[in-house]
Design goal:
Layout (H helix, E strand, L loop, with lengths): L3 H16 L7 E8 L2 E8 H15 L2 E2 L2 E2 L15 E5 L3 E5 L9 E5 L11 H14 L2 E6 L11 E5 L9 H4 L11 E2 L9 E4 L8 H19 L13 E6 L2 E6 L4 E2 L2 E2 L8 E4 L3 H9 L1 H7 L11
Parallel strand pairs: 2-16
Antiparallel strand pairs: 1-2, 3-4, 5-6, 6-7, 7-9, 8-9, 8-12, 10-11, 11-13, 12-13, 14-15
Helix pairs in contact: 3-5
Length: 304
């Protein structure tokens, strides 16, 4: 049975689809095995619309719905048609305008902060609150090179549905019996990364889980050398995923491989492409090679 929170998400989603402010999910997908790991490569039509909107913002071209201001901030304030409501004292729950799956949520700060500023306890409390209520996967795209399309501080969430990204398939390849806070590396991922055991999921205590996640993120960043810059206080580009009692953090070098935008969800086993032809591009090289190409070479790993 849906919780009060998920009922609100579903009602807002249904209303936004009915009004035309949110497009129904149109997707095709294939499963590709690489290095013994399954990857879902999914074409989502809405992502092409997102690219068109970004192109219009950069060029000043008028697109359907009017011209896009390149400095437009969709979260200050968020579109009321897409806003589910407040979450705690610092975040709003907003339907992602360009969702990769049904009920794809953005947990956006109510006040502006840079997306590459280090994640704070309040960000993890927002994620922990949703994870405790509905399970699923929380994630963070730190900077444009990591797949972020907005500077305004936000984390995101997707539900645990077949075909959606998760850490479940990777967790099976990690050491068993680790205590919360312990670090690990996955032998099948040929890139710099760090897993941390963390108790965060459906039924968890949000306050305790938020503290554990914040500490886990700090430990992973220390192990990977992800330190804020001395002048701007911003992190290097990175991704974070949390769910199924694990957190994964990894640094990024660039967003695209062969024209395919790769974000945190790609490391959760689901690669989202803009055009059906890009499915074959990923199949040709293999998902692991694509993910490694936009990360940092494994030989540079220090710590974890």
């Amino acid at each position: 049975m849906d919780s009060t929170f998920m009922r609100a998400v579903r009602e807002r989603t249904d209303a936004a689809i009915a009004s035309g402010d949110l497009q129904p999910i149109v997707a095709e997908q294939v499963v590709i095995h690489d290095g013994g790991l399954p990857f879902t490569v999914r074409w989502v039509a809405a992502l092409a619309a997102k690219d068109a909107a970004k192109a219009g913002a950069a060029s000043g071209v008028t697109l359907p719905g009017g011209p896009r201001d390149p400095n437009f901030n969709p979260f200050l304030p968020p579109d009321p048609v897409l806003t589910v409501g407040p979450l705690g004292a610092h975040h709003n729950v907003v339907l992602n305008k360009f969702p990769v799956c049904l009920h794809h949520l953005v947990l956006a700060r109510r006040e502006f902060a840079e997306q590459l500023s280090p994640l704070e306890p309040i960000d993890f409390l927002a994620l922990a609150t949703v994870l405790s209520d509905a399970g699923g996967l929380g994630f963070y795209n730190g900077g444009a090179a990591a797949g972020a399309s907005q500077r305004h501080k936000h984390v995101q969430w997707i539900p645990a549905v077949a075909g959606n990204a998760s850490l479940r398939h990777l967790g099976a390849g990690l050491p068993a019996g680790l205590a919360p806070g312990d670090l690990a590396r996955h032998p099948g991922l040929p890139l710099r990364h760090c897993f941390v055991r963390v108790e965060a999921g459906r039924g968890c205590d949000p306050a305790a889980a938020a503290q554990a996640m914040h500490e886990a993120f700090g430990r992973a960043c220390d192990a990977l050398g992800l330190e804020p810059g001395d002048e701007d206080g911003l992190l290097p580009p990175c991704n974070m995923l949390v769910g199924d009692d694990w957190m994964l953090v990894l640094p990024r070098s660039r967003e695209h491989f062969e024209g395919v935008s790769l974000n945190a969800l790609s490391y959760g086993g689901t690669v989202y492409v803009r055009e059906p032809a890009q499915i074959e591009a990923i199949r040709a090289v293999g998902p692991l090679r694509a993910l490694a190409a936009v990360g940092i070479p494994d030989s540079e790993t220090a710590g974890a």
